[in-house]
Amino acid sequence: MIKTAFLTAMLGVAFAYGAPRPETSTYVDGTVTSLKPNTGGTLVFSDDSSMKFRTGVAEVAVPYANISKAELGPTQTHNHDDPAYKVWLLPKRLHKTETQLLTVNFKNGLGEQQTMTLELAKDSASSILATIEERSGAPKSVAATTAKADSTKPAANEWWGDSFWKTNRNQGQWDANTNASNTGK
After folding, report:
1. What's the whole-number mean pLDDT along residues 69-97?
2. Tell me, what's the pLDDT at 145?
3. Strand order in the sheet with 67-78
4. CATH number of the domain that 33 lies in?
């Protein structure tokens, strides 16, 4: 009993700190000649030297050392527009699927510049990008939509109520606004 608990705990730790699990993805666009657009496959991180995109027909290995740039694109929401008479698909229609694009620029075995854009589940896209950046040393890059979201965050000393209520904490801001409005009259 103790041995089983110990082995289970060790396996849990190994899975938690091991390589990321294979992720189902779709090759959306790029310059890889062995893949056609909108080809489904699996992104596999089996070793520390390369990642592989496997489809039923082809396997594309991307060595981490050859990756020059990896970036996340915008988030996409997919609706499931099935006919209303198919009541058995009701649970599927109630939720929307969110995906995110991952673009990887790399050099293939012949030294040619290649681009591969993959569509991944939104929940796993950022961890996959982090794994690629960690193993390749590629520059960190996130889509403009994420950068915009970060730039709208208030500074650490700001509070949302400062624009509504006058307090001792924000009296300087209110005095500046009052002076500006008085000089404008």
Report:
1. 73
2. 40
3. 59-63, 50-54, 39-44, 23-30, 113-121, 97-107, 67-78
4. 2.30.29.30
Tell me whether residue 14 is in a domain.
no
Taking alpha carbons only, the member of 132, 122, 116, 98 closest to residue 36 is: 116
What is the model's pLDDT at position 41?
92
Residue 148 lies in a domain: no
DSSP string for 7-59: HHHHHHHHHHHSPPPPEEEEEEEES-TT--TTEEEEEE--SSSEEEEE-SS-E
Query: Helices (H), strands (E): how many in the chain?
Result: 5, 7
Residue 160 forms part of a structural domain? no
- Work out the pLDDT band at 151, boundaries 50, 70, 90: very low
Please list, in sequence order, all residues whose beta carbon lies within 8 angstroms of the beta carbon of residue 79, skipping any fewer than 6 positions away: 96
Split into its structural domains, the chain has a count of: 1
pLDDT > 90: what percent of the chain?
A: 9
Q: In DSSP terms, which residues pair with 33 in a beta bridge?
A: none
Instruction: Indicate whether this model's pTM tops 0.90.
Output: no
65 belongs to a structural domain: yes
For residue 111, the enclosing domain spans 19-143
